[in-house]
Design a protein that fits this description.
Elements lengths: L1 H19 L5 H79 L9 H38 L1
Length: about 150
């Protein structure tokens, strides 16, 4: 590009030489031509750099937005699955508690309440384990992110 740019500027200056440097004496002409070429080259480079920078920033911003969108979709999927699993176990737990309440109110015809109590306790602990597992997973993720931010 530098050779093409130099040729373009040389041709431009040669074409405009009489107009641009008509009042310049012959002794200073070479200096004025050289300074004009350097200034034109600097202006062109600045314009190109600005355009390239703007394009790069737009491209980077689009990539960041795309990755953030994909991350949100993945988190939503994970959240929906976790919510579904928790809802099942909470529902089972509530059903067992309802059976226990029915037995205590004598509206249920359960012969033995012990299996229902054990199931309720089991479902309760499963719900607690799922919540703790999700909480700890998110906590570990935050700590790793914080550690990565500190090292960068």
């Amino acid at each position: 590009m530098a050779t093409s740019l130099d040729n373009l500027i040389d041709n431009y200056v040669q074409l405009k030489k009489d107009i641009l440097f008509s009042k310049v004496n012959d002794e200073d002409l070479a200096l004025f031509i050289d300074m004009t070429k350097k200034e034109l080259k600097r202006e062109i480079r600045e314009e190109i750099e600005e355009e390239v920078k703007e394009r790069a920033l737009k491209k980077a911003q689009n990539e960041i937005e795309e990755k953030a969108g994909l991350r949100r979709i993945a988190e939503f999927k994970k959240l929906a699955l976790d919510g579904f699993i928790v809802a099942i176990f909470v529902g089972l737990f509530v059903n067992q508690v309802t059976e226990i309440i029915g037995h205590l109110k004598r509206t249920s015809v359960l012969v033995d309440i012990k299996p229902t109590i054990w199931l309720a306790i089991g479902f309760f602990f499963i719900c607690v384990i799922i919540f703790l597992w999700r909480f700890l997973a998110e906590l570990v993720k935050l700590i790793k992110k914080e550690h990565n931010d500190e090292t960068n």
